[in-house]
Amino acid sequence: MGAGILLRAVQEPVFMMQHPPIINDRPIATTALEYTFYQWGFTAWAFYTIFAIVIGHYLFKRSKKVLPSSAFSAVESVFASKKHQNILLKCIDILAILTTVFGLVAAIGLGTTQIEGGLHHLFQFDFGTNGTISILFIISIVAFLSVFKGVHKGIKLISTWNIYITIALLFFVFVQGDMIAIITQFVTSLYYYIIDFIPLSLALGTYNPGEQFLTDWTYYYWAFWLAWAPFTGIFIARISKGRTLRELIIGVLLVPSLGTFFWFTVFGESAFQIIHTLSNYSGEFDNVFSSIFIFLENYPFQGMINMITILLLISFLVTSLDSAIFVLSMFTDHGKQNPSKKHRILWSIILTIFAIGILLLGNIREDIDVLIAMQKLLIITSLPFSLFMVIMILLFIKDFKKEEDTIVTK
C-alpha cells in the first residue's frame, strides 16, 4: 500500500480526471478523487480486516496455528471425514502461498521499476536492467536483515520510519498548496464516495464504467487486495494480540482508509491546480513511474525531496518484503508465531530469485509486458480465493454465533 500510494499519488487522480470513468453533474476533479478513493479505500482494507478478525479469533481464542487454513477451522462441522478436511485445508494454504508470492513479486517489480524511473529522471542516466536488479538486491538485503531481527527489532522500526517520513512528505505538499481547497475537496469527495459506495461497487446503471475499465483497474485492484489478504491479514492479526474487535476494525479499516483518502486529495488536488496553471499541459503526469518526481519539481528543495521519496519507496518495498518473508516463514514452519531463521533465509532467497527472474524475463522478451502478465496471473489465482473468502466468512459467523450462544447459556 505504501509503495502503491507513492506510485499512484499523482498519476491516478490525474488519469481519472482526464478519462472520467463515469459521467455525472459533479465537478470532474471531485469525480476523479471519488473514484480514486473507491479503488484504494474501504474495499481494500475490508479484505485485510475480515481476514485479520477471523484468523485472530482462531489464533488467540482457539490456539490455532498461524496458517491461512486456520481461518477455515469451522470447516470441521461441514466435513465428517478428517482426510477431506486435511486435503481442503492444505489446498487453502498452498493457494495462499502462491497468491502471496505472485502479489509480492508484482509489487516489487513495479516498485523497483519506479525507483529506476525516478533515478533516470533525476540523473538523466539509463541505469538499465542491471541497475534495476542492483536496486532489488539492496531491497532484498535490507529486508533480510530486518526480518532476521524479528518483528519488534527490525520490521517495526522500518515501518515506523515509513510513517513519519510519509506524514512529513504529505505535510510538505499540503502547506504549500491551497489548503482550503484541499480540505474542501477532501470532504466533498469523501461525502460522494460514501453515498455512492454501493452503486460503485456493483457498477449499477450510470456507475458502470465499462468492462475495459473494470478489467484494467477495478478487477486488478480487487485481485491485488485479495492476493495480499492472507499475508496482510495474518500479519495484522499477529501484531494485534490483546485488541478488541472494535479496536481492530477502527485501526485497520477506518484510520488507514481516511489517511489514504487525504493523501490522494493533497497530491491529486495539488496536481489539478498545477495543470490548470500550465498554458500547455502535455501529459507530464501520465507516466506512472516518474509522475511523482515531476510533480515534486514544482516545489522547493526538489532535489532533496525527490531523493527522500526514492529512499521512502525503497523503505516501503523493504517492509513489504520483510513482512512477507516473515509470514511465508510462518506458513511453512508449521504455523509458528516466531518462525525459524532457516525459513526466513530460505524465503528471502526464493523471493529475490523469483523477482530477478521476472525482471530478466521482461528484459529478454520485450514484446511481452511481464508485469502485465503477472497482473493477469494474479487475477486468476485470486478468483478461487475470493470464493474461499465468502465460505470463510459464512463459517466464521456460524461458529462465532454458536460460541456466543454457548456463553449465554452458561
Automatic annotation (TrEMBL):
<feature type="transmembrane region" description="Helical">
    <location>
        <begin position="163"/>
        <end position="194"/>
    </location>
</feature>
<keyword id="KW-0813">Transport</keyword>
<feature type="transmembrane region" description="Helical">
    <location>
        <begin position="344"/>
        <end position="365"/>
    </location>
</feature>
<feature type="transmembrane region" description="Helical">
    <location>
        <begin position="305"/>
        <end position="332"/>
    </location>
</feature>
<dbReference type="Pfam" id="PF02028">
    <property type="entry name" value="BCCT"/>
</dbReference>
<keyword id="KW-0812">Transmembrane</keyword>
<feature type="transmembrane region" description="Helical">
    <location>
        <begin position="377"/>
        <end position="397"/>
    </location>
</feature>
<protein>
    <submittedName>
        <fullName>BCCT family transporter</fullName>
    </submittedName>
</protein>
<keyword id="KW-1003">Cell membrane</keyword>
<feature type="transmembrane region" description="Helical">
    <location>
        <begin position="248"/>
        <end position="266"/>
    </location>
</feature>
<keyword id="KW-0472">Membrane</keyword>
<keyword id="KW-1133">Transmembrane helix</keyword>
<feature type="transmembrane region" description="Helical">
    <location>
        <begin position="37"/>
        <end position="60"/>
    </location>
</feature>
<feature type="transmembrane region" description="Helical">
    <location>
        <begin position="87"/>
        <end position="111"/>
    </location>
</feature>
<dbReference type="InterPro" id="IPR000060">
    <property type="entry name" value="BCCT_transptr"/>
</dbReference>
<feature type="transmembrane region" description="Helical">
    <location>
        <begin position="131"/>
        <end position="151"/>
    </location>
</feature>
<comment type="similarity">
    <text>Belongs to the BCCT transporter (TC 2.A.15) family.</text>
</comment>
<feature type="transmembrane region" description="Helical">
    <location>
        <begin position="219"/>
        <end position="236"/>
    </location>
</feature>
